[in-house]
Amino acid sequence: QVQLVESGGKSVQAGGSLRLSCAASGRTVDTYSMGWFRQAPGKEREFVTRVLWSSGNRYYGESVKGRFAISRNDEKNTLYLDMNNLKPEDTAVYFCNLERPREPNIWGRGTQVTVSA
Fold this sequence. Notes:
mainly beta; seven-stranded mixed β-sheet; four-stranded antiparallel β-sheet; globular
């Protein structure tokens, strides 16, 4: 059973930076991709970024391109999201996601990021 635990969310001022972490445990050897989504109050869950495990290709949502960066540490089984130049509209709960072939997606419980103007 794969489990994902996010951490690093906090309150920051606009223009600041944060690093989120997602620690994965369990069977992750057949991972297809991992990524980050976010959900603001009253809004649908939004794609932020993902990395394909075998190729290392990275994809970003338009609203975060040039400001956010996804990375991973395979030894620690940890995924990161570096967020720079944060804006109030980045305020949301950030969720880690793991995708495997022919299996339901795995989600973490989320970590709150609040950006004040």
